[in-house]
Specification:
20 helices, 553 residues, two-stranded antiparallel sheet, 34% helix, Myeloperoxidase, subunit C, alpha+beta, globular, five-stranded mixed sheet, secreted
Length: 553
Amino acid sequence: MKRHVRDSFFVVGEGVLEFDDKGEATTRQPSTAEELRRFRFSRLGPKGPRTDEALREALALAMTPGREVAQPDSENPAVPAGFTYLGQFVDHDLTMDRTESQLGQDVNIDDLMQGRSPALDLDSVYGRGPRDKDDQIFYAEDGVKLKMGTTTALGPGFPPFEGFDLPRRGGTAGTPADRRAPLIPDPRNDENLVIAQTHLAFIRFHNRVVDELALTGLTGDRLFRAAKELVVRHYQWMLKTDFLPRIVDPAIVDDVFTNGRRFFEVPGRHYGRDNTPTMPIEFSVASYRLGHSMIREEYEWNRVFNSPAGLAGTLFLLFVFTGTAGNFDPTSQAPEDLDDVNRGELFTLPSNWIADFRRLYDFTEADRDDLVPPAESGGGNVTKRVDTLLVNPLRGLPAGTFGGRGTQFPEIQRNLAFRNLTRANMMELATGQQIAELFGAEPLTAEQILTGNGGANLDSLTEEQKAELAEATPLWFYVLREAEFNNGLMGPVGGRITAEVFHRAMEGSRISIVRSPYWRPTLGPDSSTFRMVDLMLFAFEGKADLLNPLGDS
């Protein structure tokens, strides 16, 4: 199974950046043709100084404080919680390497270049399509629709629900982990239950578009290609007009999509005629890891799992009920329990864990007041503000979330903040100050970096560590501090990187609204509107019993 995280990076013009057997960062030239065909990263800014391990550990622990430390209320009421995991879904779409299973095989040059370049084309959902012999397993018998799975019944009130779990390998052969494995192109989308249910929503969206287009007489491959094109264009429109302005200063988004990119692969200056994008490591390893600070510790999940009922959907439980990071075993109590891939007797999602999407998105945005969850059952969820604080469970990740099952590793490596800082250190990532200078942006002051604005408290750092941090701030920490002073929105450094990469990825996709500037959505309320709530309403036919199949009682 594909590992959830990437521990080595092929950076164009530099080579393969990775850790050696002793945990030291190294750079080497690709040694095989296969390595030359890997996903392509690039470097937007200069190399930065290393951050020593003691500072990385101290900073990570300050960003993920213990439960005994009182934390400021940092919820963002403007952003429903579903957008956190939509962001993770988008990350997997951007970074999926479609040539991974083709290494050593002959592929045409267009497929090769597109497959190892970042694109916003839903290849994490479609793979290489129903005509590919390896990816046919993701598709229904008609070769047009995508498969869906059935949940496990739990007795009265919780029958099996067809179409409410990801499709899974099943069968009676292999290990329990093999039987739980999701039949989707990117197993990372079964790493937590929210992203798994989000992926399922996109499967439903595609299948619903297929049904609509079939009414026009299209069949077979023509129907599939038409459906995919319509789905991808609406997806890109939603990202541009709904998702990005919720996490990036809207003025930056508008500038990039109106006036074009200023720094990353500027047309005519930074890339050639093949139009294949790269992904800057400053985006992958720093600015787009903003979503980690948006994660809640627990969620009002459905009528069964909510705080008034005494058991909300904790972050840990949302790992448990997946096939990639979890084991579907409700007796699991700690991350170490999830390291046992063969634990548990369930092989599909239990019916009582189906998402109530009314709690993850605000359907009043689409004037659907009938799709508001009852307040007495916990109501809906919003994201945590983008800042330098991560919720405590991210201090101790299950090993399955980072490909660590069956291995020995220091406990600090379970800390998500430490992993982020260490990966950036491996790649000699530019500091926040270096990128601010590159962009001509006013840098944060030393006081802003060390004191923040309702984020991580750095009093536990030594004076020497504070001085080092203020002078050369790791880019990920910098962009989160920047957001603290911008009402939780990514600002001149983090926002600019993020918006320009999204623009470039859309421009370089085979299906592209950037290269088709006159295209307008047809599946929303009007010709200029298509939001995530519109996608969900279309995918689930606007029906409450599909968006929330367990009901309210």
